[in-house]
Amino acid sequence: MPLIPEEPQIHESAQGPRATPASGRTAPTPRPVPGPRPAAPPRPGRPGPLRPAPPAQRSSRDAATVQPGPSASAASATPQIQLIPAPVGGALDAADEAVDLLLDSGRAPGEVLVITTGEQHPWAAHELSFGEASYWAQHDAGDDVFYMDADVAGRAAARPVVVVAVNGGSDATAATALPLALSRAGALLIVCGDPQQINSVLGAGV
User: What CA–CA distance (Å, rounded) separates 159 from 174?
Assistant: First the structure.
């Protein structure tokens, strides 16, 4: 069924620290805030530097609160679906912010899979520079957030949380990637992108 860009409540007892609001601001719940994450350590296996969302997009994006979904042990039912509205050019940043909040809320890095439909995530590009064998070995280890293109998402193992950045690519790519991502998500599927495009692609499929 079509997704409505509102602030859904994902029920789970949050573990670990919450995201800290900027100085001088108060926020009752953590919200995705455009901005870069710290640069990656020099060793392979960690996400690379991330880009801030363009300033023009900050006021236009209706960011939704991201909270952790049910734990993997309780995820026998259909995964919950959450939409974070974002323009195509800001979907990757929205996905990164969602991952940050999930980790800050207590999700283990190995529980999160990120799929991009357009531009490759910088972490994936960096790790693939060491060769596909090393890249897929990290996927199989399952001890860190893993980033992959929609084109190869069929090789992904199931994880409790899957985040999809609809950051480009054809409608056909998104139409294939979103149902696939849902099938890999044990508890929660987060989709970052343009709500109209996403609903148009999904129709009544999800």
Answer: 19
